[in-house]
Amino acid sequence: MTGTMDRLSWKLFLLSCLVVVESSAQDFGQTQFICTSVPKDMDLCAATMQNSGPAEDLKTTVMQLRETVLQQKETIMNQKETIRELTSKLSRCESQSLPAAAGPGGRRPGSKNTMGDVSRGTTDTLAQLGQTLQTLKQRLENLEQYSRGNNTVQANSLKDLLQNKIDDMEKQVLSRVNTIEETKPAARNDTDQRNKVESTLTSLHHRIIDLEKGKDTRPTDKFQLTFPLRTNYMYAKAKRSLPEMYSFSVCLWIKSNASPGVGTPFSYAVPGQANELVLIEWGNNPMEILINDKVAKLPFLINDGKWHHLCITWTTRDGMWEAFQDGVMRGSGENLAPYHPIKPEGVLVLGQEQDTLGGGFDATQAYVGELANLNIWNRKLSIAEIYNLATCNSKAPAGNVFSWTESNIEIFGGATKWTFEPCRSLN
Q1: How do residues 261-320 score in pLDDT, each as one tens digit?
Q2: CA–CA distance, 162 with 413 (Å, rounded to integer)
Q3: Residue 283 falls within a domain, yes or no?
Q4: Domain that residue 314 falls in
Q5: Burial of 365 (0-12, 13-18, 19+ CB in 10 A)
Q6: Is residue 365 a contact partner of residue 352, using CB atoms and an 8 Å limit?
Q7: Distant-in-sequence, close-in-space partners of 77: CB < 8 Å, separation ≥ 6
Q8: Looking at residue 248, which CATH number applies to its domain?
Q9: Distances in whole angstroms, Cα of residue 359 to Cα of each of 42, 191, 237, 263, 277
Q10: Which of 142, 281, 362, 379 is least enclosed by beta carbons within 10 angstroms?
């Protein structure tokens, strides 16, 4: 009898568990439950009622959690499009890599395409970046109006912030334009897009200059040019030619960490001779000075990302030359284009090497870095004068053939201009 009662109690216990599981499953769907044994002498209905309290509390808690999750899901969905748009934009604005190492031999590569691996862009990407620049342009116009009526520190700070954003966007757009140009054959509408973007960049640059002139009384020679990318369209040009010269001195401040080779800080071409006077560091070759296409290798070490002052002097008699870095003579030589005067009626270009008069630029020879205070004299400077220039002495002379002033230079293709004071802005 006792065994029979035990078996009956066990069957009743299993039946009660099945009832609770079935009832709970209807409320919560597929859920795992744990059954608890009921003493044989306790009323099963009473035990069920005692266990119903925690179940109801659990159900209420689950419903509250579900409501919270739904609210969070709605918030996430509202932000999803914004996140996707930002991610897509960032992925399309990858900066292109520096050019691949140039091949051995010669200073003038036969191939125009050594730009390395880059992500291939699309016309849609370029158009989107162009629209962004147009937006920045509108904001800049608003800033101009604000600055005219409120010449305050707040307006100047806002202008500086906007200039930084514009500079970042310039690098992205110019990188994408250069990438599209690398795709051969280039579509005609891509060229049109590039021209539009270049025009917008030039317009933005001139507007920034106008703003600076309106609020700044600094001297017109306290500026630097920045060439952030290797392109065949980013450069500056002197507004007038050089005269005939039987000797010269050329000095400049330079800062670059480009490799291999910083490129071409400046080139002077004349009719019939594209390499009349060129300073170039191409590939793994040392920096060279070219006069009438004759070459002298210069003992400069400059691609460390720091500012350096360079000076080269030359006389047509015996082709004597001297090279100075940071006020110290680093080398000299002779027989560099002896008895050949530098010819007049040419074009002086900063940042590009000319294959034709005023053009024929090759991106692999473009200068990458910063450049300032390029001055040219039609005489050989003394060691003391060169030292004064390198140390920013007040007695340092300005170039009598070409002097570093804003009115003497035109900027093209997105090269940028920033305030610079020698010896105060170093490194």
Answers
A1: 999 999 999 999 999 999 999 988 999 999 999 999 999 999 899 999 999 999 999 999
A2: 20
A3: yes
A4: 235-419
A5: buried
A6: yes
A7: none
A8: 2.60.120.200
A9: 103, 17, 11, 16, 15
A10: 142
